[in-house]
Design brief:
The complex is a heterodimer of chains A (10) and B (212).
Chain A (H helix, E strand, L loop, with lengths): L1 H5 L4
Chain B lengths: L2 H24 L7 H14 L10 H24 L14 H13 L6 H15 L2 H10 L1 E2 L1 H28 L4 H23 L7 E2 L3
Helix pairs in contact in B: 1-3, 1-7, 2-3, 2-5, 4-5, 5-8, 7-8
Classes of the chains: A mainly alpha (10), B mainly alpha (212).
Chain lengths: 10, 212
């Protein structure tokens, strides 16, 4: 979900 | 990826390199807070545990490896290689007052109650206050070497650029992560005082001196 996308940030 | 995030990562990377080179070249960590560097090593360790399990891109993986390796190298230089030059008397911020509250908060406020997610959340909260021992040390010594102020400026600007990255991602990717945004705002606000001094003093060729 949305939050998983965030984990592409350093 | 967008320009703000890319510039933010470059700024973060250059801050880390500036610090590494400053200590290595001058063979001294005078004016550098070992406690802040320890906190950064904890931040990267707890945030990048998925380094080997979750491949996102070559860029992402290589930057994570560089961040973790350089933070440990910096801690090693401060507490081992050049420990004779470590100014422990001025590096007295009580880091337990940063680690304990952020650890508790990461259990209370997170996106998912799983070990990886709680550790990631802890690393986000801790990063937002990790610079405090360094800023405290600069205010205690009353001044900072120019190279150290460039390091701090690059480090502060990185998260400021990330704030613009989150505005961009909200606008164009319908994405936002409130935990990262709030922590990023706190982190940037902590630098405001320093940004003001940096722009009004260091950019005019003067030495950075804080009212002690």
């Amino acid at each position: 979900e949305l939050d998983d996308i965030g984990k592409d940030e350093l | 990826m967008n320009i703000f995030r890319f510039l933010g990562d470059i700024s973060h990377l250059s801050a880390i390199i500036i610090l590494l080179l400053k200590i290595w070249k001058s063979r001294s960590c005078a004016g550098i807070s070992g406690k802040s560097q320890l906190l950064f090593a904890i931040v990267f360790t707890t945030r990048y545990l998925d380094l080997f399990t979750n491949f996102i891109s070559f860029y992402n993986t290589s930057m994570k490896v560089v961040y973790v390796a350089s933070s440990y190298a910096t801690v090693w230089m401060i507490y081992s290689k050049f420990k004779a030059t470590y100014d422990g008397n001025h590096d007295t911020f009580r880091v337990e007052f940063l680690i304990v509250p952020t650890a508790i908060l990461s259990f209370l406020v997170n996106h998912d109650f799983t070990p990886l997610e709680i550790l990631w959340t802890f690393s986000i909260y801790l990063e937002s206050v990790a610079i405090l021992p360094q800023l405290f040390m600069v205010s205690k010594t009353g001044e900072a070497e120019t190279i150290t102020s460039h390091y701090l400026f690059a480090l502060g600007i990185y998260r400021t650029l990330y704030l613009f990255n989150w505005i961009w991602r909200y606008q164009f990717e319908e994405f936002f992560d409130l935990i990262a945004i709030v922590a990023g705002l706190v982190q940037t606000v902590l630098y405001c005082d320093f940004f003001y001094l940096y722009i009004t003093k260091v950019l005019k060729g003067k030495k950075l001196s804080l009212p002690a």
